[in-house]
Amino acid sequence: MKLDLENMLYILIYMTFFLSIISCIAYFCKKRISHQIEYILIKNISLDMFKYSEKLEPKEYFSYQKYDIWRYCSLF
């Protein structure tokens, strides 16, 4: 009976160890992927703002900067 209890305890310890390693790997992968997605979204929004401002005439561009319209263009 003692051997069975020891074996079950060792199996439980090993399973806990491997599950903690797997959960740490999953956490770091998830964090890295979400960070890359956020970077891509921010980059695309900023590029869209610059593309919009390139199409404007000088008078429109000044109002674009003066009234902070560029902040709302990323929502469209």
Largest sheet: none
Helix-strand string:
HHH
Mean pLDDT over all positions: 75
Helical content band: over 70%
Keywords: Membrane, Transmembrane, Transmembrane helix
Question: How would you characterize this protein structure?
Answer:
With 76 residues, this protein is an all-alpha fold. The chain has one domain (2-73). The chain is 87% helix and 0% strand. It has 3 helices and no strands. The longest helix is centred in the middle third of the chain and has 53 residues, at 2-54. It is rod-shaped and about 85 Å long. The model has no long low-confidence stretch (mean pLDDT 75).
In short:
The chain has helices at residues 2-54, 58-66, 70-73. It has 76 residues and is an all-alpha fold.
Structural descriptors:
76 residues; mainly alpha; membrane; 3 helices
How do the strands and helices of this protein lay out in sequence?
Elements: H1 2-54, H2 58-66, H3 70-73
